[in-house]
Records
---
Amino acid sequence: MTNKISALILTDEFSTNEVLKLFLSEFENLELLEQTTDYNEIINKLSPNDKKFLFIVDLSTRKQDKLDLILQVSQQCKNCKTIALSDNPSVDLIIQIMRAGAREFVPVPIIKNELYEAINKTINQFEVPKVKNKCKIISVFSNKGGIGKTTLASNLALELSQITKENVALIDLNFQMGDITTFLDLKPSFNISYMLENIDKINETFLLSTLEKYKNSSLYVLADPPYFKQADNIQPKQISKLFNTLKDTFSYIIIDAEASFDGKNIAALDNSDMVLLVTVANLPALRNTQRCLELFERLGYDKDKVKIVVNRYMENDEIKEQDVEKVLSKPIFWKIPNNYFAIMSAINKGVPVSILNSSTNVAISYKNLAQHISDNLIRENMVKKFENILNNQ
């Protein structure tokens, strides 16, 4: 970058201020503004549109006032990026900080490497983004096994590749008991552990030659690790980095998420544009789905991000569609009909349902779901595009 970024520190602690000034002085592209504790003056300092600003705010004291200030800065200061600090971090506080508009969080006392990583990530957000494929990441999730999550993920991925004619990546994040390769009868030479070990070498050519291509489609599969110990070495940050790398090559990334809330899985869900929360119409499954929705709300997920998919749905079930919606206080996004024989036959033969028999009700449902998702995402992109045009007028 040719232009320097102006940095402003807000903290009530002298020692924290001195440490921050010392560390920031090592960045040649940062110039430190004179500190102030006047909130109106801070807004005025960070408002000019012809400059870029980095706002570092310590919430160790006056937490709510500073949360309100972060929100005000994010709304009024368009060229400002915020990093938040606190000596008493918690999941709830970090969620509040992110909701207010800060993009990075660093705990106090400050560790130099953690601060530098947060600053570098934030500075990179000022760079003019490359024109690239607008990839959408879709996680298929349930915290209860045996719901049909893997069947949905594999069939949806293939249908999206066939409908859109674009590259689709299907990732198996069931690190202990992944089944994607079994469902599609694949024996890949490489898996996600290999990919993460070589993350810095990855480009489009590497991806398209390393991921297992499914027959004559534009669907590419990234398998789970073959050994349990390999999964233990995978970190949440690596998952996020992998997705960011895949975005340049694929239009859609479908994730068969693990039925858990560990760090790796939450990293996948955080990075997803859409979460298909799969359930069936019985009370134990619906209670589990309620718990998932409550946790997603705590994580700060937008209500529109999480979509309810009822699998194995039958019109004559004792629990009706309206009962499900009432219990979950959320509309059903999609219903996949129950067709045990078609699904089991496809699984046992290692092929998607549409390849075995495209005229079955369940195959038609998967195809229509893929069409519905792709249409909706296109519509959302167009709405955002027009909103940006109107906002710039």
Note: Residues 361-392 form the longest helix (32 residues).
---
Amino acid sequence: MLKPILILALPIVLAAACTGKQGRGDSPTAADGSGVVTIDIDRAKEEKALLYSSVLEKPDVIVLETKPECIIQNIFSVELYEDRIYILDDEVKALYVFHRDGTFLDHVGHRGHGHGEYRDLSDFSIDREKGIIYLWDNAMDAALKYDLHTHDYLSSIKTQHDGYLSLCLQQAGDKLYVNRTAMDLTDPDNYLLREIDVQTGVQTDSCLKAADYNKGWNRNFGFQFGFFYAKNTRSPKFIEMFSDTVVAVTPDGLRPAYAIKSKDFVTDEVIADVRKDCGPNPDGLVDLSRLREGGWIHFVSRWVEWDGMVSFQYHKGDERHYALHDLRTRETRVSTAFSDDYLCEDNNLPLDMCYADEGGVLSVLHAYAIPYFLEHIVAKGRLKPDVDEREKLMRLTDGANPVLFYHACPKRPS
């Protein structure tokens, strides 16, 4: 089947990004494409495997302490602040605080029905300037505020619950951006982000119409690490499942930041057919077999930025691919494998890059992958002898908490 070439039309995609409950309507546009970085997958250099050693330094290994009060089942979001690591587990519904050496320190907030407690924690965001942690309670449609240093409860921001499910949260200046999934997929005003005033909880804008930005798709899906990325930077990023445009979330509003280009990127017509097959109910069965069979590119995720580099994942059909883009040279490399070769040769551990700051990049060995790590790397003597905290890694057991790897960024010529 001949696939139509994707034409990137950023002015159309984002011209109606914020419909404006206040009648603002001055949503971000890219009238001439200025400031938007295009990453052309079709022109990328294909490699057998992308290697951590080609872009990052040898990692500091952080073996998270395993205690009854901090058993992590699934890492949904991670942030580093000073000498602390904040980890949200969306299965246990808890925000854990660890020291940089992996020692467990505290919880932020507690689950319950009392004052300052949340019912269903699904995401968090840190305001480093004001020293506040926002915890998003999707059951209450509220953001709970805690002191970043003491973890004491401060107050809550209750939004107007309209029956739509919101799972992901990002603070930007005096605004909160919260994702929004549809109750009625046929609603012409179906949109993806709510802009909320942090003082009043009033929704000040409705952003990113699903029809313009995400090919009409807006279902009740939750994905690991959510839809917000580079959360600790001045311009965090947002991208949805079938969009080719990465949006920057800034105190001044939304703006297009990156465009992912390929002749194989899934089209509006394909998604329209998938939506038709799935029906109007956002909680109904979803059949994505057409995407797999057609080999369409979709689901750009795991977006990480550091020192002039960008890394992300995408799916082509049912196969996961990885991309590295150098903002200085404009070179893009892609592969079906991204290997931390500092741990062992031909490493195919399922590691996720999940965070970056001015110092380096954090990747995670999830708890579910530890048995594989023990059987195929430790037991077979493949773990390199110079790996940091090697003895702790050798003593890991099934049921241990995830392991974090912090790779410093190498110094590059300016």
Note: Residues 32-408 form a domain with the Neuraminidase fold (CATH 2.120.10.30).
---
Amino acid sequence: MACGNCGTGADGQPKGCKNNGTCGTDGCNKLTVFDWLSNMTIPEGQEAFNYIEVRFKNGRKNYYKNTENATLSIGDIVATQAASGHDIGMVTLTGELVRVQMKRKKVKQDTEDTLKIYRKATQKDIDIWTKARDREEPMKVKARQIAIRLDLQMKISDIEFQGDGSKATFYYTAEDRVDFRQLIKEFAQEFRTRIEMRQIGLRQEASRLGGIGSCGRELCCSTWLTDFRSVTTGAARYQQLSLNPQKLAGQCGKLKCCLNYELDAYMDALKEFPKTEVKLHTEKGTAVCQKIDIFQGFLWYAYEGEWMNWHKLTAAQANEIITSNKAKEPVASLEEFSSEHIEDTKIDFGNVVGQDSLTRFDKPKSTNKRRNNRNRNKKRATANATNKKPDQKKAGQKPNQKKKDPNKPAQKQNPNAKRSNNRRNRSKKKPDNNA
């Protein structure tokens, strides 16, 4: 079923459901299971599985029994049984895959807690449900203001109305236990409905609210991840990641769930490697592991006291030395093992797509100008050195000083210059009034 709220408006602009990928019409496909058995017919003599998977706001799912044997398909809006009244949800899965999901989640059939589906939702049910959903956002703002006024150490992250609008569930996170008896009284007086407070963890809060992770994709917990396994710092150590809390933590403040995705592959690869805390004993000295490369299968060792000189060994070579140490067989040095290793060959990747170099703007533009100026200065210095006269080296004579020619007639003095000098000398003389 296509999302009715995420369609394009009359002006050609996308309207958007404004629910961060968790719209009630299932157009954003949050936690949707692909029904790969939908095109297969049921064998003769076998009845269809009469349990239905129904999804509510923010990926909350439950399983209901179809006691009325109503014909339901994925995307239908149905009215389901609740503790009091009824709820409105969307059918997300039918048929034999519901049996598989219930078995995986350990949901038992035909128990006292089993709920049932009443009917397909009418237009009146959908109108009441839509009005109740529109009240959630302003109620959340008002509820946070009341909690701050009462000085309660809690964060109200989300509000979910029941389909008939008779009850509102407040989801909150808190580090310690919170006494919200006075809070419930003020909520009931302010909102005029039944109130239920439900505490959730930080991971559950992130899955309900959604968001974009550091990888640039939607959060796994809000799109497809349903079980939250514990994540420890050991997962980061096995993968040789930097133990930086800012990089390893997700939006929930806990360690990222994706640290567990490739952990099994790393654990299998590390089975062939010796333990890093095991030292290699040789006649030259004791070597300690400094670095390990799981992908290429190398280890780097350094002698105690010579920490700057590393020797690269393969996992098989390191295991061979450890076996010799256990058998008390002498090992000369690490060099005899590391010298047998073939050096890495540098792979030159050709430019097959004809793209420009990424460093084409790193070269300075004035390189040729600087080179020309440098060459010009060298030429001038060489020319000055060759044109220097030998008689300039005589004592008492300044360099580049012109020598007087005795045969050259003396230059005549300008009479105007002599007259100006006499006038300047008379102006310097002051009259003596006492004479």
Note: The mean pLDDT is 79.
---
Amino acid sequence: MNRLLACTSVVALCAAFASTAYADDVKQAAPAASLPATLNGEIEHAKELREKGQFAEASKVLRQLMLVAGTDPRVASEYGKVLAQQGYAKDAVSVLTKAVQLNGTDWTLYSALGVAYDQLDDHTNARKSYNRALAMKPGEPSVVNNYAVSRMLTGDYDGAVQMLSQLHSNDPKVVANLSKAEELKAAHAPKMVAAQATVAAPVIAATAPKVDSTVVMQKVPTDPHAGPVRRANAAPRTLANKAPAQPVLAAATSKQDISGKDVVMQKVPVDPQAGPVKLATAKPLKADHPVEVAKATAKATAKTPPPPTLRTASD
């Protein structure tokens, strides 16, 4: 019994010594500025690095956290924001979309998604993301600022100026963006006025044409045989030394001599395959032929027309 107790005491002392030695080794191997050991501490440390602009260091920490805690919405949120600020827009959209699926109540995720979509020139989805963020956090200056920058990217400088002016913010970013939006609005205003003037100019010229004093009109050529020029309202004049044309009557044309020697008849073409031409001979009609009977009946029943004075309208 005493031997068993003695063995147990020795094992306990050895374990305590080993634990102390291991702790000393870890303390010597670990750097002085080691990262926090908890997940919350790691996330806060990565967030601090991102806010300081140390995106590479923050991305390195978050990549390790994504391997062990990729389903944590805070890890995915911070990693997506860092990727967007580094310019990796496509990867940022993928990670932030996953973060939204894990936690759809975080308005900062939609604001970051809008920035990533703007980097991809997908301004339609960017506008949807900003509107979703503002629906959750109305009037949030950071979202309005990002939304105004998106408006400037699409050429809506007037809308960007209105959005930034309503913030009444002294934030250096907001002030700088408002100044830039006003500058771009003023720079593009003359071009728009000139374009409108260019479109309106042809219409004015067409409705009110101007006569250039340097234009020389060519004289109208005159015909010496045509006589003097008459006005349209002048009386008609008779032609001198010209007999009026006489109409040619049908009776006169019948007296014209048209002899056979002046007429040239064209020969009828002969078809050798048709055979000889047979002459048509008219056969005399019989007295009891239907045509002869009809003619005789009509002649017998014909009435003598009344004199002109006795005709009526029905005749």
Note: DSSP finds twelve helices and no strands in the chain.
